[in-house]
Amino acid sequence: MLRSMTGFGRCEEVIEGFSIQVQIKSVNHRYSDFTIKTPRFYTFLEDKLRTLAMNSIARGKVEILLNLEKQASDDKVITLDRSAAEGYMNALRLLTEYGLKDDLTLSSMTDFHDIFRIEYKETDEAHLSELVAGVFQKALEEFSQMRCTEGARLEQSLRQHLSALLHEVEAVEIRSPQCVEAYRQRLRTKLQEVLSETSVDENRILTEAALFADKTAVDEETVRLRSHIAAFETAMQTQQPIGKKLDFIVQEMNREANTIGSKGNDMEIAAHVVEMKSIIEKIREQIQNIE
C-alpha cells in the first residue's frame, strides 16, 4: 500500500484546564525533515513530539505546530510582602508631617505593585507531555488517513501507466522479428537488382540477416523491462516505505528503454520507445511524492 508524502492532520482538545491544539502537515522531500514549533514556555515538549513523529513518518518535509494554553487560573498564588507593605505605610505616615491631607487607604496601597508577589505552581511536565501526546496521536491519525487516501489515488494511476508501458513492450516484441524479416527481404531485392543475371546466394542472405538480427535484438531488454514492471507492482503491495526503491526501479526501466531505442534500428520501434519514455517519465514524476 502506497502512502503519499503530502498530508495534513489537526486535533484540538481541552483537557484538565489546558487548551491543546496540534497540527501536522507535510510535503514531499528526498529525506526526512522535521520542524517542531511550540510555545515559548513549553519547548520541553519538542523532543517528545519529534520522537512520536519519527516513529510514524519515514520520509517527507514535516511541520508540527503545537498551540498550548492554560485556561484555569488555579496555578497562580498571590501573596503579600508584609515587610514591603509596612515600609510603604511608615513612609506615608512620615509624609503627613509635611501637611499632606489625603488619608491612607487600601486603594492607595494597591498602587505599590511590588508589595504583591505572584507565584506559579510548577507544571507537571511528564503529565502534560502525556496529554499532548494523546492529542498528537489523534492529529496523526487524520494525517495518516489523508496520506493513505492520496497514496491509493497514486497507486491507481501508476497501475494504469504500468499497463500502458507493458503494452508498448509487447508491441516491440512483436515488431522486432518483423524487422529482421523485412531486412532479409530488402537485402534479397537489392541483390537481385544488382545481380540480375546471377542467382542470389541464399546462404549469404541468411548470414547477413542473422548478423542484423544479432545486432538489433532487444529480447534481453524487453525481458528485463517486463521484470522491472513486475517488481514495481510487487513493491506497491508492501507496507513499508518504498518510494526510494520505486525510484531505483524506474531508473532501470529508463535504461532498458534507451537501450531498445539505440538497438532497434526501426522507425516503428523508435515510436514505441518514445512512448515508453513518456510513460516512464510520468511514473517518475508521480513516485516523487511517495514515502
UniProtKB/TrEMBL annotation:
GO molecular function, one term: hydrolase activity
Family of this protein: Belongs to the YicC/YloC family.
Range of residues in the leader sequence: none
Keywords (A to Z) from UniProt: Endonuclease, Hydrolase, Nuclease
Name under which the protein is recorded: YicC family protein
Residues covered by the Endoribonuclease YicC-like C-terminal domain: 173-291
Required co-factors: a divalent metal cation
Record-annotated Endoribonuclease YicC-like N-terminal domain positions: 2-155
